[in-house]
Amino acid sequence: MSITNNSITNARQLALQILRDIDRRKTYTDIALDRGLKQTFLSPNDRGLCTELVYGIIRRQRTLDTLIDQLGKKSSQQQPPDLRRILHLGLYQLRYLNHIPPSAAVNTSVELTKENQLTSLAGVVNGILRQYIRLNNSQNEPLILPNNLVEKLGIIYSFPDWIIKIWLQQFGQETTEKICHWFNQPPSIDIRINSLQSTLETVETKLIEANLNVTRLLDFPNTLRLTGKTGAIQTLPGFKEGWWTVQDSSAQLVSYLLDPQPGEIIIDACAAPGGKTTHIAELIQDKGLIWACDRTVSRLKKITENAQRLHLESIKILEGDSRNFEQFRNRADRVLLDVPCSGLGTLHRHPDIRWRQTPETVSELSTLQGELLEQAATWIKPQGILVYGTCTLNSLENESIIERFLNSNSHWKIEPPSPNSWVSEFASPSGWIQILPHQHHMDGFFMVKLKKD
Ligand SMILES: C[S@@+](CC[C@H](N)C(=O)[O-])C[C@H]1O[C@@H](n2cnc3c(N)ncnc32)[C@H](O)[C@@H]1O
To answer: Any idea which positions bind S-adenosyl-L-methionine (predicted)?
Structure first.
């Protein structure tokens, strides 16, 4: 029996189909989920369950695989791919979802096995899941852990060893565990109010009227946080009118650190999809010129769409590799360099990043980041400002890039945020800002303001 999406009437079958899409086509989780959900008519509750299962299983993949390795006769990698995912679905519900009775987790997984042409393996699924329940009920942790600290934390929190290693080196064990725990929770959504079109109070009132859970964020003048279910963002009050933009508060902090002024020439060297470009335009009251540069055409289109929705006119788009733009030499008052990075600060939003990035991709990224910084620095007028930012928690892409740049460019220095500004609360003694998610309750971010003599 082949199952097409629109015949899917239950959350677990759809979750399996989406996981299959991720496995076979290497599709990003959010894209596969979006595609799967669009083509079905599940109730809001079932859509919620499907989302939780898909995101949770991708996040917890290493822990779940280890359980299969320990409870089954064959390792997780030796199982047929669909069977491995069905076992993930069952084990995830048993281990992480309190609202699903264990018998339902087992029965629905056995059903899935039969519905997906794996009937002869239904006994394997039943056996592994029941063994998990038996061990759990007898107060034995079903997951057996190695002594090696890196591997142990990697298995408990479901991270690859290399990420655990760099965090242990940078932050020590206690903070590493807190960060890992944070990144296994579902994210909240922050929105940035477009003060040229609306006010914090108006947007807050409209969203509360639409039954959303809305909170203000201390210090941030134009930010609201949405917790709980929001439904489709595009249908919320004020979105179409351009009153607000979804942007995590740590990403908002970057443009506050840049502190752009009306009338200035500003270059956003890696601008797409325009979250920070549009924030900069709002901060300068749309008076000035912002060059939004990026080498990815499809992502550049999003800047145009976002600027139109937000009614912003000060943004000009430039397609190409920012390492090659010579025409900007000594032209900019300020440059924002929000470089491509490994994204280790956003692992709760993008659950597959932890499995896609590797030490090799990080090494390529850090070369690119250094080259972009060297080039973007040439665009600045004397006394001008450059803000370098990444949404990662990896010193090779953060402090090391800045240290290397400052060592070879003696006419540049770190400019800490002004002590009168609320942004300075986040700065370290060295002047740069590192946002640790469990401490600041925002995405992980690194940002630093540099000034040219
Ligand atoms: C972190 S994202 C930027 C996010 C954006 N600043 C925002 O706030 O919405 C990094 C961007 O750098 C772009 N990029 C990567 N390499 C580039 C290069 N050599 N020149 C220009 N853009 C580049 C990518 O296409 C991607 O859009």
So the answer is: 270-276, 294, 321, 338
**Closest C-alpha to ligand 1, atom 6:** 271
Whole-number Å distance, alpha carbon 273 to ligand 1 midpoint, is 8
The pLDDT tens digits for 70-115 are 999 999 999 999 999 999 999 999 999 999 999 999 999 999 999 9
Q: Residue 413's domain is classified under what CATH number?
A: 3.40.50.150
Residue 340, preceding peptide bond in cis (omega within 30° of 0): no
Nearest one of 329, 452, 336 to 379, comparing CA atoms: 329
| Judgement on whether residues 316 and 370 belong to the same structural domain of the protein | yes
Residue 340 beta carbon below 6 angstroms from any ligand 1 atom? yes
Q: Is the CB of 275 under 6 A from ligand 1?
A: yes
- The model's pTM: 0.94
244 forms beta bridges with 193
Question: Residue with the nearest Cα to atom 11 of ligand 1?
Answer: 270
Domain count, the chain: 4
CA 8 to ligand 1 centroid distance, Å: 37
**In the beta sheet, which residues pair with residue 389?**
338, 447
The pLDDT tens digits of the residues spanning 314-345 come to: 999 999 999 999 999 999 999 999 999 999 99
Identify whether residues 210 and 340 lie together within a single domain.
no
Same-domain check for residues 318 and 432? yes
CA 21–ligand 1 middle distance (angstroms):
27
What is the arithmetic mean of pLDDT over 14-30? Answer: 95
- Regarding whether 438 and 301 lie in a shared domain, the answer is yes
